[in-house]
């Protein structure tokens, strides 16, 4: 903050900082409606909640999730790009890198949203961070590949590979178990008109969505 007042940061850098902050807010906005669509798709399709209600509930729970669930995921993503790299690159270069990765993430999120492709904003941001780190290592005076925390990238990559397999397996087992134990045929048919599912199943759907 002292650098902002003593004039050691130029006008161009301040402008780049302001643009970066605006782009960061833009990413959060895109991230919000992008991930909300994934979260509320099931409750809307099954008529468990009306669209407007589902979106509002999802927005509130996303906001509360930061305070209740912690920031472990955010810290893991941040650690992909070493802080020393941003500091060593200088203020202007560091802001440019931040701007580049946020713009890349926004463009990919908008593209997948426009074409209706289910994609995670967190995964998008991870890819953008790794890309910026690699691009920076191609500049003169840098060693290729040193701009990325590869140990953390390996952990994140392993989690991205394993989590869909675990989700697929658990969901399949739960569906098979439900068909064996729960004989209500309404649970296995597409929704009819605006009729909601049974009350207990509706509560379960809403609970998983808000979770």
Secondary structure layout plus pairing:
Layout: H1 2-5, H2 11-45, H3 51-69, H4 72-78, H5 83-89, H6 91-114, H7 121-137, H8 150-181, H9 199-210
Helix pairs in contact: 2-3, 2-6, 2-9, 5-6, 6-7
- What integer is the average pLDDT? 79
What sort of overall outline do the alpha carbons produce when their principal axes are compared? elongated
| Uncertain segments | none
Largest sheet: none
Alpha-carbon distance between the two ends: 38 Å
N to C succession of SSEs: HHHHHHHHH
What does this structure look like?
By secondary structure, the protein is mainly alpha-helical. The protein has one domain (2-210). It contains 9 helices and no strands. It has helices spanning 2-5, 11-45, 51-69, 72-78, 83-89, 91-114, 121-137, 150-181, 199-210. Helix 2 (11-45) packs across helix 3, helix 2 (11-45) runs antiparallel to helix 9 and helix 5 packs across helix 6. The radius of gyration is 22 Å and the shape is elongated.
């Amino acid at each position: 903050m002292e650098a902002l007042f003593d004039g050691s940061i130029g006008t161009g850098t301040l402008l780049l900082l302001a643009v970066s902050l605006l782009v960061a807010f833009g990413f959060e906005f895109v991230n919000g409606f992008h991930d909300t669509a994934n979260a509320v798709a099931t409750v809307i399709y099954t008529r468990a909640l009306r669209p407007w209600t589902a979106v509002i509930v999802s927005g509130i729970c996303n906001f509360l999730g930061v305070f209740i669930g912690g920031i472990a995921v955010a810290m893991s993503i941040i650690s992909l790009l070493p802080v020393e790299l941003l500091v060593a690159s200088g203020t202007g270069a560091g802001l440019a890198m931040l701007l580049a990765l946020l713009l890349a993430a926004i463009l990919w999120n908008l593209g997948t949203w426009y074409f209706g492709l289910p994609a995670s904003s967190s995964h998008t941001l991870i890819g953008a961070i790794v890309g910026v780190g690699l691009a920076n290592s191609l500049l003169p005076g840098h060693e290729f590949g040193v701009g990325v925390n590869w140990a953390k990238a390996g952990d994140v990559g392993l989690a991205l590979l394993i989590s869909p397999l675990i989700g697929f397996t658990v969901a399949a087992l739960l569906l098979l178990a439900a068909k064996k134990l729960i004989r209500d045929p309404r649970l296995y048919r597409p929704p009819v008109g605006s009729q909601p599912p049974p009350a207990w199943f509706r509560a379960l759907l809403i609970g998983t969505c808000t979770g």
